[in-house]
Amino acid sequence: MIGFDGAIAHVSGPGDVFRCGALQEMLTPGARIRIVSPTTSLEETWMRFVRANQLMGISWWNMDCLRTTTFITGLPQNRR
């Protein structure tokens, strides 16, 4: 999931595809959000949005949470 001002790009799980949505759509009552790889600059944030847009329509089966995060952040797994 990547988000800004309540708009997000995410894949909810098996059977779904990476798509645009709203933060309220995926949060259940009492849910918490954990930031796993915060950006350090506005430039990095926009780079991540560009990379996230490249995933639109891709199935969860091809891009699970770990692969999606690694792709969007552009970071090797061991740096997160």
Give a brief rundown of this model.
This protein has 80 residues and is an alpha+beta fold. Helix content is 31%, strand content 14%.
Provide an overview of this structure.
The chain has helices at residues 23-26, 42-53, 65-73; strands spanning 2-4, 7-10, 19-22. It has 80 residues and is α+β, with helices and mostly antiparallel strands. Strand 2 and strand 3 form a beta hairpin. Helix 2 (42-53) packs across helix 3. The two termini are 15 Å apart. The relative contact order is 0.21. The model has no long low-confidence stretch (mean pLDDT 77).
Count of strand segments = 3
Beta percentage is: 5-15%
Name the average pLDDT.
77
Poorly predicted segments: none
The profile of the biggest β sheet is: 3 strands, antiparallel
Number of domains: 1
- Structure annotation, total helices: 3
Q: Which sequence of strands runs across the widest sheet?
A: 1-2-3
Order of secondary-structure elements: EEEHHH
Q: What Rg, in angstroms, do the CA atoms define? A: 12 Å
Head-to-tail CA distance between termini: 15 Å
| Class based on secondary structure composition and strand pairing | alpha+beta
